[in-house]
Q: What sequence folds into this?
């Protein structure tokens, strides 16, 4: 992807990220089963669960129900500085279904777009797969494949039902930072390649100092710090377009950054940070194949029906100890295995993400060269080797209306310019204020998650 804007948080009276633990609502994680596979039809079910990110939760004084964060501003008494904020504020347990529109059933997770509740309305969610009550599940993707089913039929222009991996700490930083009492159990520790600065707490401290409330969103803002790490976007999609994108960082692991030196969508200088915010992406529509993916039987992959998405992380040795050489994609629909479309753009060939593909894409689409500058596929390989946390989310885009995914972007370029046309949505589509009214009932479901050896997680009937 070329842009990822601030994820929209709940419009509850208080939504923030914090480190202490509240006692008003018990934290009960929705269960979610998934499978590990060693060969075709040889899979074992794992009893997992999901946790919602702390940015969506009610944050209040450790001594009372006084909000630490209201609307898009901090309480100056509770949060006079970053360290005090972490000590004074508690993150509360979540009512997943009634407040956030998150439900699970067996292997299926559903995330609703707009959920009305007693405090107003919640918009979308970001969740993580848990290994146990206090630890995120981590995946070693090299030499393996990851498969899931997804229903995007109810995701119109401007929405993004995303499944991806980031190099978060497995315990959410619980063991490393003194003032972090919440950890993974309460969804703490998010980072990605945009080095997000909308996070309310980072590395056991608040992000209240130099906080600037958003001028366009009543719930978000940008703080003086950000949190960077490598990101592997398996799936960013709605019913119109999808993209698979690798985002390496020059440093491995989660890294805090300062102000505009963070780079990414949240900063004045996009390429100032340690991560590649653009990444090397594969979007068939952007590569000239406009009939591969979309709603209806005229498309090769019909988004009116459930889709099985298979992603393989091929190494140079063919083993889990090799170096990443290609990211391959297959689909399974109605019993048919469908290979990812080949590029139809002159100068870019193939249907896999490889070093040669990324170099060609950057050249033809006149990219900034950040993928190579941040270490390219080899640095992405190093991040994958260390293990990554699974993220599942539904969000809208206050920064760019998701045009970078499903329309013409940037909007000051013509659609005929290579790389600009990314989907069939209008450039006037995707405005959050509009779609929250018109498409409030939208949702995404993810199900049947499987992880294992190459060619072990999918079959054609």
A:
């Amino acid at each position: 992807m070329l842009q990822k804007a601030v994820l929209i948080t709940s419009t509850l009276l208080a939504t923030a990220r914090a480190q202490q633990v509240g006692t008003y609502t018990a934290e009960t994680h929705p269960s979610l089963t998934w499978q590990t596979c060693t060969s075709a039809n040889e899979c074992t079910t794992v009893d997992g669960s999901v946790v919602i990110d702390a940015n969506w939760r009610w944050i209040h004084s450790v001594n009372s129900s006084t909000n630490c964060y209201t609307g898009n501003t901090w309480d100056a008494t509770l949060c006079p500085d970053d360290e005090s904020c972490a000590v004074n504020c508690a993150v509360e347990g979540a009512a997943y279904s009634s407040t956030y529109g998150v439900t699970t059933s067996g292997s299926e997770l559903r995330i609703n777009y707009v959920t009305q509740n007693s405090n107003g309305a919640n918009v979308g969610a970001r969740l993580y797969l848990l290994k146990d009550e206090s630890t995120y599940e981590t995946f070693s993707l090299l030499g393996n494949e990851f498969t899931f089913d997804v229903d995007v039929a109810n995701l119109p222009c401007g929405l993004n039902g995303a499944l991806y991996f980031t190099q978060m700490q497995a315990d959410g930083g619980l063991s490393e930072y003194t003032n972090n009492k919440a950890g993974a159990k309460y969804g703490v520790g998010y980072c990605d390649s945009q080095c997000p600065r909308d996070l309310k707490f980072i590395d056991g401290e608040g992000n209240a100092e130099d906080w600037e409330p958003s001028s366009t969103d009543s719930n978000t803002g940008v703080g003086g710090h950000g949190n960077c790490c490598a990101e592997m976007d398996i799936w960013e999609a709605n019913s119109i377009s999808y993209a698979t994108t690798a985002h390496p960082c020059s440093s491995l692991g989660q890294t805090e950054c300062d102000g505009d030196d963070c780079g990414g969508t949240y900063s004045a200088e996009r390429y100032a940070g340690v991560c590649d915010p653009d990444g090397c992406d594969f979007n068939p529509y952007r590569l000239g194949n406009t009939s591969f993916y979309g709603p209806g039987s005229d498309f090769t992959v019909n988004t009116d029906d459930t889709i099985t998405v298979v992603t393989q992380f091929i190494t140079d040795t063919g083993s889990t100890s090799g170096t990443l050489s290609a990211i391959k994609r297959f689909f399974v629909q109605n019993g048919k295995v469908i290979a990812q479309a080949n590029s139809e753009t002159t100068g870019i060939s193939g249907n896999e993400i490889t070093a040669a593909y990324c170099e060609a894409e950057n050249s033809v689409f006149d990219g900034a060269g950040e993928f190579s500058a941040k270490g390219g596929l080899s640095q992405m390989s190093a991040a994958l080797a260390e293990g990554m946390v699974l993220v599942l989310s539904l969000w809208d885009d206050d920064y760019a209306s998701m045009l970078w995914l499903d329309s013409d972007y940037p909007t000051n370029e013509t659609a005929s310019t290579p790389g600009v046309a990314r989907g069939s949505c209008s450039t006037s589509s995707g405005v959050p204020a509009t779609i929250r009214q018109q498409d409030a009932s939208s949702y995404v479901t993810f199900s049947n998650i499987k992880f294992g050896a190459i060619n072990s997680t999918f079959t054609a009937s």
